Amino acid sequence: xxxxxxxxxxxxxxxxxxxxxxxxxxxxxxxxxxxxxxxxxxxxxxxxxxxxxxxxxxxxxxxxxxxxxxxxxxxxxxxxxxxxxxxxxxxxxxxxxxxxxxxxxxxxxxxxxxxxxxxxxxxxxxxxxxxxxxxxxxxxxxxxxxxxxxxxxxxxxxxxxxxxxxxxxxxxxxxxxxxxxxxxxxxxxxxxxxxxxxxxxxxxxxxxxxxxxxxxxxxxxxxxxxxxxxxxxxxxxxxxxxxxxxxxxxxxxxxxxxxxxxxxxxxxxxxxxxxxxxxxxxxxxxxxxxxxxxxxxxxxxxxxxxxxxxxxxxxxxxxxx
Length: 321
Fold this sequence. Notes:
single chain; ABC transporter involved in vitamin B12 uptake, BtuC; disordered C terminus; ABC transporter permease; ABC_transp_permease; cell membrane
């Protein structure tokens, strides 16, 4: 029984939270409100999946939010300037992927710890975003072929939900069911043993950080599409939530280890929590207070499992060999 609650206790708590808000607010279960919750979860979930993939290889990407903001600015600038939407979309994805690849090169070639490398990338991305916009957002009546990416629906579900499901499924299959995924996990849990076994651990770290950047780029494109605007720092509100989603996700399903299902369920739980607090009339600052408490509690609850997970011991200022 103890093992069951260790693995599923946090997920059950999230489900009870959902039920509690459903009983406390008559608006919570309305179609419109649930659509808002799932749409917000999509942005957070895709960004958090990128963070999770980097963490699987024992690397931390603190640049995901600023990279997403920069990619959104580039995407928005091109759409606003009259370029074809597919060009803008490709540019946004390319910016995110390139920033992730740059992080990977800094970590594996120049041996800069990922904590420092990604902080540097975040600062550069922030500066570039303000340089491209001069601090002014790109806003306009953009083509429906672009805004439909996020605002449309298919089979009765918002497109954002399908985007999240597709990215989540692809990431889960990659990590759990492919040889490449096994190499990513081995790199994170025991990089020296993995290297001696013939796994190209540095390549795995570069790949994981590049995928984190690609997820940031996709988040940026969807944000710009949904809001019909792009501005520096527009993804920053998702940064701490993304970290919290990954940490809380490590308390469920695979305690002590980053995992895609846990990240996705935690992202939904966090957005349900924020939405429910708003509906109950809580002041805005309570969301930040509760978010900080969740980050601390999730680390504390999974401390024993995290201590047994070898990859956690390498999350410091050293780089892997």
